[in-house]
Request: fold
Amino acid sequence: MWNRLSPAKFIGVLLASSLLAACSRDPNVRKQAYFKSGTQYFHQEKYREAAIQFQNAIKIDPRFADAHYQLAECYQKLQYWQDAYKELQRTVDLDPKNSKARIELGNLHLLAREYKKAEEEARAVLADDPNNIDARTLLANAYATQGKADESLGEMKSAVQLAPDRSQSFLRLGALQLINKQTAAAEESYKKATQLDPKSAAAVMALGKFYFQQKRWSEAETQFRRAVELDPKNPLAYESLARTLVSEKQEDKAEQVMRDAKSKMPNNSDAYRMLGDYYFAFGMNDKALAEFASLYQQHPTDPRVKKTYVELLILQNRLDEATKLNDEILKANPKDTESLINRGQILMREGRASDAVPLLEAVLKAEPENAPGHYQLGMAYSQVGNLGQAINEWQEAVRLSPTMTGPLDALAEVAMRKGDAASLEQTGQKLIDAAPSSPDGYVFRSAGRFISKDATGCEADLKRAIELAPENPLPYTRLGFLRVTQKRYNEAEKLFEQSLDRDPNFREAMQDLVALYMQQKQLSKALDRLNRQIAKAPNNSTYYSLLGTLLLANKEPDKAEAALQKAVEVNKNDINAFLLLARIQAARGSIDKAAANYEHLIQQNPKDGRPYVLLGLLEESRSNWQKAQSLYLRALQAQPDYPLAANNLAYLLLEHGGNSDVALSYAQVARRGMPDSPHSADTLAWAYYQKGTYRLAIDLLEEAVKQMPSNPTLHYHLGLAYQKVNDAPRAKEHLERVLKLDPNFGEAEGVRKALSELAAG
Reply:
């Protein structure tokens, strides 16, 4: 038998049940229960679960300020910055006295470059609490971002005086002093921070970073080693130590530090990616690819690993593998920006830049501040022949990300082709600032100094480039060329040989070495040296093309023709070899025989575009342009993206009244396939000219003239383009240059007519 309740107890139970039911329906009780649960989740670092509970509390009471604030804290932990901003703003609206919310809101304003709004939040807190250290710090930061150096330092010093034992305040004071070039004072502030909190890895890291910036490598190394000891699970400490060791030329030790990070933090993406990222950043792409292939096997769900692996596969032209992995990412998230940009790169590598352009334009429409997107769109524009727009995109990429080296390299290359000394020096300096351990900036700046006739500065830059990258052949070649201009021929020869020792296929070094011998009238020596290099690098079409030129100069046309045949066999897009080969055959009077041979080749290999093009060139040489046009069209039917065929067909259409839109399309195909050829630049420019797009034509022709300054056709076209944009002095300069180069120029009458119009105008 169970015990019966007395009437009094029974009534008590009923009353308690009623109270519990009433409480469960009380909104205040329910919202507090959600708030308490959210707080517990937050302390357990379960931020998503905490956010849900705070959202539930807000649904019950939309004016629950504390819940809005705690929800903002969750969003910040999850790095949902826009949502955090909204919740902090709502918190401040509901509770203007919440100083923590105001300061955090102010810091988000700083990140968004809303400096005045950040200042307003700091002042609002200080109006109620003049001694609030965090508000003083926020105000100091707001002043600093507006260039108010004295006010900024004044506020930060006030913060330090309010809490002289606070390490964090000295760190911020040191940072502001460094910005204002008060180096000694900054060092003392950083040291004070470490003294106040000797176990703070953040303070030790800040002091190490200071030493690193001052290039005091050994002191930086000491601090970063301390940071690793204090916080052995902090990837940034290992990365900073490794970077310092690299600066000290202790690459082996640096790699070991990165391996230690990987082994001690096997589940931390920043740690296990560190070594591969290092290889990638320093251009050791083979090592980087091997490392990321291994990482992908170990961490197949890590998006950063997968995306970097895709980028490396693209660089190695393993496009099928890259496409497969990239498509997997896009299948899961069709709007993934990085993967869409990677798809654009793949399209460009496949010769489909015209398809990459609209894809990348769409990416930037959704994310206009995406610097890599602007860089790659610039590359796509460049491949379709729109250099002016390409430059605009690269400049925008640099504006958005001043330390991004890709667009700086591209702009420097453009300046190099144009011979623009000022731009070369400026862009070279930006590259040095962005990547001081890379030789590229020094090489570009040296070129600008060479053009400006600053031989001392040029030499210093090239020697620094060699010091930074002793295995890179380019600085040796450029220094060799400088020695040639100084008539220090023995030194030049040694430098060219050093370059070729590092890369037997380095064309610029071989071309300059041959030019040096030819300048000294040592043709046999040039031939012997070139043949020895071909034995070391048997698949270099430029070497065979150069050999053909030398053999022709040595009056050995049979051997020259054989060398040029080998050049086009090795590289079907070697336009200079094609043109020289056709010229030799025409000059030797064997056009009919050559034509018969090419017809036979066409029958044997109908899918090979080369014999069609060679036969077309022969037909052009005997003024049979209609047949040549037909042959170029057949070449493109066999190989739709064959650039030489597209170039020649476009030019014939333009010269003989063909459809200008069709000609433009073919010219763009040619430019994509031969982006460095002055011939493709001229054809595309001439197409732009006939479409009335004169500025684009000028950009391309200026580039072509730099490469072939003695070509009268280029000067003629450039002069006409300048005439169309009413730049009479430049038009006259180039048109007069035509007649100086070739008084019997085929379009001499057109040149004289244009000059007459300029004189009359």
